[in-house]
Task: structure prediction
Amino acid sequence: GAGVSQSPRYKVTKRGQDVALRCDPISGHVSLYWYRQALGQGPEFLTYFNYEAQQDKSGLPNDRFSAERPEGSISTLTIQRTEQRDSAMYRCASSLRARDYSNQPQHFGDGTRLSIL
Amino acid sequence: GQQLNQSPQSMFIQEGEDVSMNCTSSSIFNTWLWYKQEPGEGPVLLIALYKAGELTSNGRLTAQFGITRKDSFLNISASIPSDVGIYFCAGQLIGGTSYGKLTFGQGTILTVHP
Result:
């Protein structure tokens, strides 16, 4: 479809394993964002990219979390040595370029539900 | 992390009634957005507001960007059963490296009884 695509939809893994979550933005959208959403809460910002450049990673909880977007399209959020507290819905969004005085609306994917056992 | 104060937390209304929810912040935002989320899906954008004082409509939905830039409200007129869902406000601030970051409210759960 034409929306933001995330995979997998569900991921269950044992504590201590590494996981990689994938996001394919809307075609033509150069800005890509990662959020984490706990049950009963709104999404919380993790990081975002313009093209392949990571512009802001202030929301990443610790150095076990990293993200990349090497070709300016698909992005991967990686969590190393997972812990139970990492369990959440991870959402990706994309928009036309975020830039001076021109905030472009962000469009969200359906998310990846991560469960750490 | 920081979140906006959104109220009410939940609403139970009869079909046909009007709905009002609001969002306040201690910080100024340049953009306010309202999203709706249904079970198993991501938030879907309803309305985006870019100027203080702006009043924007989208069908039965009307939203306003507060003059102080620290608040916004969303009204839904003549509610119908398909309005059921969680409504989120989100603020966005231009400045530094924060062009992209959205700060969300806790959500308002709307239930509409036929």
User: Anything to note?
Assistant: The CA atoms of residues 6 and 23 of chain A lie 5 Å apart. The radius of gyration of chain A is 14 Å. The interface with chain B takes residues 4, 31, 33, 35, 40-45, 48, 50, 55-56, 58-59, 91, 93, 95, 98-101, 103, 105-111 of chain A (CB under 8 Å). Chain A has a mean pLDDT of 92.
